[in-house]
Amino acid sequence: MKRKIANQIIELAKSKFNPDKVQRLDLFEVDDKIANKFKESAGINISGYIHQIESCALRHALKRHGSDRLPITCEDFGLIPEIIRNFDYIKFGKTQRGLKSIIYIKRFNATIICIEELRRGKKRLSFKTMYKKTPSGASLGITPEAIRLSQNEMPTPNSVNTNLPKNEPLVNVITPVKPTQSTQGANRKMPQKKGKK
Predict the structure, then answer these.
(1) 38 pairs with which residues across the strands?
(2) d(CA 110, CA 86)
(3) Residue 195 located in a structural domain
(4) For 110-161, how does the pLDDT look when each residue is reduced to its tens digit (9 = 90+)?
(5) Domain that holds residue 51
(6) 97 inside domain
(7) C-alpha span between 154 and 110 (Å, rounded)
(8) What CA–CA distance (Å, rounded) separates 51 from 156?
(9) Measured in whole angstroms, how far is the alpha carbon of residue 37 from the centre of its chain?
(10) How far is Cα 159 from Cα 183, in angstroms, rounded to an integer?
(11) Are 175 and 142 in contact (CB under 8 A)?
(12) Measured between alpha carbons, how far apart are the two ends of the chain, in Å?
C-alpha cells in the first residue's frame, strides 16, 4: 500500500502539467498526535483532515529546488508519506500568505524538509514544497539538544530562529513530536536513480 501511494505521487510529479486542470491526490487522514499538537500550537482542530498533494505544488518544488546543491527529484516525492508518518521532528508556523503550516523534518543521508499548508475550507493539509539540506540541524536553527530530545516525547515548544530559504514559510516555534513509529533515520539511504549503485 505504501509503495502504491509513493508511485502515485511520483507519477503525479512526472505527469504533464495542465494549468487549466489541477490534479490532486488525497493521501491519508491526519494522525491524531499531529492533530493534537497542531491544536495546542495553533488552536485549530484538524482531526479528520486529509493530507493532499497538488501537481502544481510538485512542479513548483521541482522548479525551485531541482537545481539546489542537493536537488529534489520526482523520485524524492515518493518519500512524502514516509516523512509525514515517521518524521524526526516537526514545526508549526505560517506561510508568507498567512496560512498555518506544518514543516516535517526527516533525516536520511540528507535532511529532507517537507512543508504543508492548512486549507480549512477543504479540510486538507496541502503539500507546499520540499527541499533537502545537509544532515546537520544547525542550518535549520535547531540545537543538538532538540535533535537528541526529538527521539522521545518533547517538553513544551521552544522558540527558535529558523533559516529557511527565501520565500519559504517562516516558522517561529519548534515542536518536536514523537513519531507514530520509532525512527532512527541517520543510516537510511535515499532512493537512487536507475543505473547508480
Answers:
(1) none
(2) 15
(3) no
(4) 899 999 999 998 999 999 999 998 865 544 544 444 333 333 333 222 323 3
(5) 2-187
(6) yes
(7) 23
(8) 25
(9) 16
(10) 24
(11) no
(12) 26
